[in-house]
Each structure stands twice: as C-alpha cells, then as structure tokens.
C-alpha cells in the first residue's frame, strides 16, 4: 500500500485530514507507567531521558482555543534504562493554567487568536500575556526548565514533573522578561576554557526592537548578558550561533497594534507578512568586548523562517541552514485550524545562506524542496561544520502536507534516506542522541514521537541514525495519544 502512495503522490494523498486531526485532541489525563508494549528492541546503550513539550489542551472546559500554539504546555518524559522505558506526562501548573482550570473557562487572550468569550468588549485593552510554557523543555544547570518565548522559564522537578516556580537566574532576568524557547548549546565555548555553555536570547518588539543575548554556564548562572537595539518590529522565534556570533533572521513583517488594542484581534493576528521586502540578517558578536564588535545587518530574499538548523564559520563567511516558507501562514480570525487546506499553504523548505562578512553580501541555495520542519543534528557539531541533519518531512516529494516521515540528509554527498510512517502515522520533532563513546557524526539514534491514527495512540520510535533503511529498530506503543508537540531534548544525566 505504501508503494502505491509513493508512485502516485499527486493523485492520491499519503494521509487523510480526518486522521491528521486526531493528533489535535486534548489529552487531559496525566500518566505514569512502564512501557510494556514494545516492538523491536530498545538498545541497551540508550540510557537517559527524552523530555518533550507541547500543547496538551486545545480547549478549556470545552471552550475551544483558536490555535494550537495557544495551548497549555504539557511535558512528556520517556526514561530509558537497561533496555526498558518509563513514561510520564504532566501539565505545567502555570498561573494561567491553574486559574483557567479552576474557573472552567478561558480567562486570558492568547497570542495566536484565542479570545476571552464575550466579543471585543471582553478583550479590549487587555494586554496580559498568559505564559503557557508550551514550546521547549531543557535540562541545564541541574534544573528542568519549560520555555515559552515571550516570558520567563518555569522550573520543574525532573522526577515528578511538578511545577516548582519560575527561573530568574539570581535576578539577572527580571519579572516577565523573556527567555526564548530556542537556546543553542555551544559544545565548547572559547570564553569559558572550552566548557559547554547555553546561549539564548530575548526579543522585546516595538518600533525598534531590543535583542538581548544571554550566555549561561554549566552551573546555570548567566555569565554574559548584552542588549542591542535594531530598527523595526521583529518576530524572531529561533536563532543560530557559531563560536563568535549569534545570527538572527528578521522576517519581513509589519505589526498593526490597533485591532489588538481594541480587542478585535490577538497580537499574532496583527502581524502581516511583507512579501516584497527583504529579510534582514542580524549578526551580533557573542563577545563584544574582545571582538571587532559591530552588529552587522545584511539583506537577503523575502521569506519567513521559524527554525534554523545550524551555522558555522568558514574564513570570513558564515554558512546558515534554515527552513524557509514563501510566506507566513496567516492565522485567519474566523477559521478552525483543524480544517486547514494543506494545499493552499506554502511548504517549509531547506535553504543554505552564505554570508560574506567583509562585503556584507548574502547568497542562498535551495538544499531540499520536500516539505520539512523540525530539524536536529549531533549536538557536538552545533556552531561547527557538520555533515548530517535529520528532519521531519512530508511523505510525498512535492507539495505541502503534514509531517509523516523522517529525512536524513548527508550535506557532503547529497545522499538522502527517508523513513515514512504514512499513511496513518504523523511525525513529531526528531532528536539525535549520540551513542556513548561514538566518534562518527551519525553514530547514534534518532528518537521521535509518532501519532498513529489507526489506534489513536502515539509511539516512541527509535531509528539507527547511521542507517534509516533498517526501519524503526524499536517502536514503543504508549497507552494513549500525545498531541502534536513542539520541541524537546535528551539528557543522559
Ligand atoms: O507582539 C509580539 C509578536 C509575537 C508573535 C510579541 C510577542 C513576543 C508576544 C509575540 C509572541 C510570540 C510567541 C509566543 C510565539 C510562540 C510560538 C510557538 C509556540 C510555536 C512556533 C512553532 C513553529 C512551527 C514552525 C511549528 C510547526 C508545527 C508543525 C509542523 C506541526 O506539527
Ligand atoms: Fe520552535
């Protein structure tokens, strides 16, 4: 059946929208159990914990949210030990989650279209942000942190997943100050004698935008913080680092706050993509005191980028790999996100950008035209030249479609390997885990959650990263589904 789909990608789709919609049902229960339903074998060397974050609820007591990005954060945890695996999930007890669950109704406006019931009068002049902590989860400095890009991290107990409070890094972060959901981990920081460090940012948008850079050491202390003002409004979700630089893509967008202020539209619905304006690339030195420290702003073609894969320096050039959309998919005010017409939206495609820092010019090249999103790579290669990346991908080679497959790309040879869960499986973000003691870049595993519409449950899938053609080496069947998530991480501690 799979073969027929592959040969006929245009006439017959590899999925049905009804199947795909199943992954957007709320999961209200919180579970805690050993996973006994396993196909294949969990590698004995795979030891550690996979943490995932994403919206767990798409409604508050039956009142529907307008967009999945407005959903309350829920952590899923899979711990691997001695060939077995344990599952646990828990909602983050944010102030907003607790208040809304208690009230049994929507009390906050969401960034992506969710409004309080009662029309514009109920929403006018309400600028409160609900920190929903739903975008990423990291283990760093001995703490488990749930991240959302517009506010401070939540601290969780790594064992019970209980919400313990919010993280301010000894007051270096102020109340309500943002700490993005896309930190990058420098495996060997030049300023810290080759120790790993976490690099993150915050965006404070306005007529001009403040970008603040944070660098956090292994002990979880902010050791460097510097802020930069750049012209214009910014909607920046992710960035990349090299040993010397932080690089941001300022997508061409315009923000009209009036409908937001008047309670007619959410903030996210007031962002308009500007297809005829260039993308600006902001290059900020990580160590302003030691470097020819000038922020540089370069220009390239229009496009919208949520996620980057990696960047590295080659002489006076920086290479950056990113997933770019022809335009920002607009959040339609009166629509239901479950009824999306995939064919009417542009697919994310993988581009490489070449920045020349001397003459400040940019070249770009399309690397992969297949619809793809949610990249990962070996953590040892972050900010460095690298050969392999792994990414969620559509089953079909052309067109826009939900993610159903995992694609491995060898950037040197151009070779590709695709492992597909179509027709009834839907793919989440993959995570690359190196095999302990590995020397080769692709010696390890790729872990991902796959929603299986046939059973309305999710699987934890393990692939051998060095060879996708083996298929899944293990498939762990959970007792329930996990809604389509956003990001996560693996820790062997
Ligand atoms: O008014 C400003 C603009 C703005 C949009 C200020 C602001 C900081 C409040 C703001 C907020 C931004 C936020 C909260 C962004 C959150 C983004 C988020 C939760 C997720 C983004 C996901 C991106 C992608 C590409 C997801 C892909 C998903 C799939 C392929 C489906 O499975
Ligand atoms: Fe993201």
What would you note in describing this structure?
The structure is a single chain. The chain has helices at about 1-5, 15-20, 95-105, 120-125, 260, and strands spanning about 30-35, 40, 50-55, 60, 65, 75-80, 85-90, 135-140, 145, 155, 165, 185, 195-205, 210-215, 220-230, 240, 245-250, 255, 270-275, 280-285, 295-300, 305-315, 315-325, 350-355, 360-370, 370-375, 390-395, 405-410, 415-420, 425, 430-435, 445-450, 455-465, 470-475, 490. By secondary structure, it is mainly beta. Strands 2, 30, 31, 32, 33 and 34 form a six-stranded antiparallel sheet that branches. It has a five-stranded antiparallel sheet with strand order 1-7-6-3-35, with no helix packed on it. The chain starts with a helix and ends with a strand. β16 and β17 (about 245-250) form a beta hairpin. It has one domain. Mean pLDDT is about 95; it is low at about 1-5. Bound molecules: (3R)-3-hydroxy-8'-apocarotenol and fe (iii) ion. Fe (iii) ion binds near residues 237 and 307.
